[in-house]
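Structure in, sequence out. Go:
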């Protein structure tokens, strides 16, 4: 045995390594008494596969690979030089500044304002229903736009509808109290 095999054999617990581990394991299991655990053969070290290439150049910078084995496919790919977008740099295209896009119309906030105002008016008088109708229309418009805040539009719709119910109640009560339209 070579010196390396001797040191490996000294470190490996269990039976010594033989030339035919399968035959010795079979013979050891035949010699072992019944009920005893089977003897496991020692592990063997295989040579590296073909896709691992050995490097022999010494490292030139701290942190570089220090030799040994390295896989070729895991190294960083080289960066290609950038391509020219305009092949003729002499031609200078005329640059126009781009204006910012116009602000989109917002109606959810206005609908909520008119809904709250209509509800406050409807608690005291019945003639606040036009403000409730305006809040209701703006809330429906806000719900149809995808850029509007949906929660605000739903609250405006609910408050405007409640103000219309209160206004209708006030008008019905006023109608029952006297000849309003006679």
């Amino acid at each position: 045995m070579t010196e390396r095999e001797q040191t490996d054999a000294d470190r490996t617990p269990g039976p010594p390594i033989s030339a035919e581990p399968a035959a010795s394991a079979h013979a050891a299991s035949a010699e072992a008494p019944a009920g005893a655990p089977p003897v496991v053969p020692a592990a063997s070290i295989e040579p590296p596969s073909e896709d691992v290439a050995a490097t022999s150049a010494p490292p030139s910078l701290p942190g570089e690979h220090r030799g040994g084995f390295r896989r070729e496919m895991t190294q960083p790919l080289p960066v290609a030089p950038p391509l020219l977008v305009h092949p003729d740099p002499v031609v200078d295209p005329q640059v126009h500044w781009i204006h910012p896009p116009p602000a989109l119309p917002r109606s959810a906030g206005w609908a909520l304002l008119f809904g709250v105002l209509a509800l406050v008016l409807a608690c005291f008088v019945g003639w606040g229903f036009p403000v409730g109708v305006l809040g209701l229309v703006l809330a429906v418009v806000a719900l149809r736009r995808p850029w509007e805040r949906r929660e605000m539009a739903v609250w405006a719709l609910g408050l405007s509808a409640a103000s219309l119910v209160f206004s209708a109640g006030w008008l019905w009560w006023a109608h029952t109290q006297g000849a309003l339209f006679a």
